[in-house]
UniProtKB/TrEMBL annotation, chain A:
Species this chain originates from: Shinella curvata
UniProt cross-references to InterPro entries, sorted A to Z: Cro/C1-type_HTH, Lambda_DNA-bd_dom_sf
Record-linked SMART domains: HTH_XRE (SM00530)
Protein name stated in the entry: Helix-turn-helix transcriptional regulator
UniProt keyword terms in alphabetical order: DNA-binding
Automatic annotation (TrEMBL), chain B:
Parts of the chain that traverse the membrane: 12-35, 47-66, 78-98, 110-128
Protein name (record): Transmembrane protein
UniProt source species: Shinella curvata
Keywords associated with the record: Membrane, Transmembrane, Transmembrane helix
Top-level taxon in the UniProt lineage: Bacteria
C-alpha cells in the first residue's frame, strides 16, 4: 500500500519525531510507514487521518496488485 | 499529546533492569551458599531455585515491555520470537536425535542462549526489513 504521509508531514514542517509523538508511536514506525515498509492497522490509519484532517483514502492508496 | 522524553524511554525498562539486578544478586548469593556445602534435600533445592523468584519478575517485566511497544515493533518482536521458537525447536530436536547416535549429552542450560541467539537474529532481520 502506498501513502502520502511524508508529503503531508513535510507540508506541515513536522519532523518524524513530532509526528510520532502525535500518533503515540516510535520514530522508526513513522519511517517504515513513509517508506511503505509497514502498513498500519485500521485504528492507526484512522489516527493518521485524524492528525492530518483527511479521510483515510486520501492518504493511503492500494497498490495496483491489491 | 504524548512526548518522547528521556524519562519516557527509560521508564518502561526500569522493572526489567531491577529484576535483572535482583536475579544477579540472588544467583550470586545462592551459588555462594550452595558452595558452603548445604546437604541434599529440601533446603538445597530451595536455595538452588531461589534465583527463579526474581526471574519470574523478569518474565513479567519483559511482558510489560512488549505491551509498551507500538504495533510495528510488536509485529517485529512476534516475527523474532517465531524465528527463535522454530529455530530452537529445529536445533534441539536435531541434536536430540544426534545424541541417539552417540553425540555427548548437553545440559538444558544450552537451550535458552540458543533461543536468545535466534531472537537477536530475528530482531536484526526485522529492523532491516522495517527500516
Amino acid at each position: 500500500m502506498n501513502n502520502i504521509i511524508q508529503e503531508l508531514r513535510a507540508k506541515r514542517n513536522w519532523s518524524q519525531m513530532e509526528l510520532a509523538n502525535r500518533l503515540d508511536v516510535s520514530r522508526q514506525t513513522i519511517n517504515a510507514l513513509e517508506r511503505g515498509r509497514y502498513d498500519p492497522s485500521l485504528p492507526l490509519a484512522f489516527k493518521i487521518a485524524r492528525v492530518f484532517g483527511l479521510a483515510i483514502e486520501e492518504i493511503f492508496v492500494p497498490d495496483a496488485t491489491e | 499529546m504524548p512526548h518522547t522524553t528521556r524519562l519516557s524511554i527509560v521508564r518502561p525498562w526500569l522493572p526489567f533492569v531491577l529484576s535483572m539486578l535482583g536475579y544477579i544478586v540472588v544467583l550470586i548469593i545462592s551459588l555462594r551458599v550452595l558452595a558452603q556445602g548445604i546437604p541434599d534435600g529440601a533446603m538445597r533445592v530451595t536455595i538452588s531455585l531461589a534465583p527463579m523468584v526474581p526471574a519470574l519478575f523478569l518474565g513479567w517485566s519483559i511482558l510489560s515491555l512488549i505491551r509498551s511497544l507500538d504495533e510495528m515493533h510488536r509485529r517485529l518482536q512476534l516475527e523474532a520470537f517465531a524465528l527463535a521458537f522454530a529455530g530452537t525447536a529445529l536445533v534441539t530436536f536435531s541434536y536430540g536425535f544426534l545424541e541417539n547416535a552417540g553425540f555427548p549429552k548437553l545440559t538444558a542450560f544450552t537451550v535458552w542462549p540458543l533461543m536468545c541467539g535466534f531472537w537477536i537474529v530475528g530482531v536484526v532481520m526485522g529492523r532491516l526489513r522495517y527500516r
